[in-house]
Amino acid sequence: MKLFDYMKNKKTYLIAEMSGNHGGDLERALEIVRAAAQAGADCLKIQTYTADTITINCHSEPFWIQTGLWQKEYLYDLYLKAYTPWEWTPVLKAEAEKYGMDFLSTPFDFTAVDYLESVNVEFYKIASFEIVDIPLIKKVAQLGKPVIISCGMASVEEIQEAVDTVHAAGNSDLILLKCCSAYPTDYHIMHLNTIMDMRRRFGVPVGLSDHSVGTLADIAAVALGVPVIEKHICLSREDKTVDGAFSLDREEFRQLVNDVRNTEAVLGGVCYGPSPQEAEDYAHRRSLFAVCDIKAGEPFTGENIRSIRPACGLHTRYYEELLDHKKAARDIPFGTPLSWDDVAKD
């Protein structure tokens, strides 16, 4: 699994979330897997539920979505359209691994966890809405595999309870994801600086689950040092799949990968002094030169020596020392880089 290797190497692990963007078509789902791999994703993620495991077929008011991207839908009807058939899971997992990607899923109930165990998934994701499902978190944590938990909408107390549940199960391989569960997410409600507070407060790595449009938030998150970014991927927003409005298409996801890797390159490590490229211009720094002809025995003055480019003369730190009653040891032509051989002994 690449996740912890990436964290050791301080690279950002990029998860491509398929969700319901397959539109109920296995061939489209497989094409999304290939698109994610070609874009450079490190992991392909799906969601494991059915309409019956995530809710009930009830059309009363509490089950009616009144606002947002999926308004005027009943929960059961939405999930009936959006779910990924479980029998696709080993097929999608094999396709992801064929292209060198890890495979991850979000279970939404105990039966989903049991099923994912039967196909040997290596780690688990808990969705933001399930951060309050303590029995589900406990069951996943007890498996001893890495756990990623999204924290959209969660209070400090709710996140702490989830963290404590994982740790109480003897599992220390936990990553939290800062998340805003608005679809799509406006920049002004993302508050990415919360990532740093979460690190300090909960003592675990913190990444980003991003539902905003474009890649700006992801670049900012990389600058904050996140170990993981999760972003939805679709083949084309023209397909009008359930999550298409806040997903990146294949070319945009490729751009995300490029932007993230270039941001990592720009941030680099801690480095002082000239880089190999800068070293070529090192000789063009300033140093002390004779800026007119100076006769032997003549004192150095502000008129006959100056700090100028290039850097082959005495260091500029000696400028005031030379002006303090120092004299030329020999004739010094105009344009000569000064050396201690040009300075008479006291």
Average predicted local confidence, pLDDT: 95
What gross morphology would you assign?
A: elongated
Structure class: alpha/beta
Q: Please report the number of helical segments.
A: 13
What share of the residues lie within helices?
25-40%
Strand order of the largest sheet: 5-2-1-10-9-8-7-6
Order of helices and strands: HEHEHEEHHEHEHEHEHEHEHHEEH
Radius of gyration: 31 Å
Low-confidence stretches: none
Overall number of strands: 12
Please summarize the sheet with the most strands.
Answer: 8 strands, parallel
- The portion of residues forming beta strands comes to 15-25%
Distance between the termini: 71 Å
Give the helix/strand layout.
Layout: H1 2-8, E1 13-17, H2 26-39, E2 43-48, H3 51-54, E3 64-65, E4 73-74, H4 75-82, H5 89-98, E5 102-107, H6 110-118, E6 124-126, H7 134-141, E7 147-150, H8 156-168, E8 174-179, H9 194-202, E9 206-210, H10 216-223, E10 228-232, H11 250-267, H12 276-279, E11 287-290, E12 305-308, H13 319-323
Helix pairs in contact: 2-5, 2-11, 7-8, 10-11
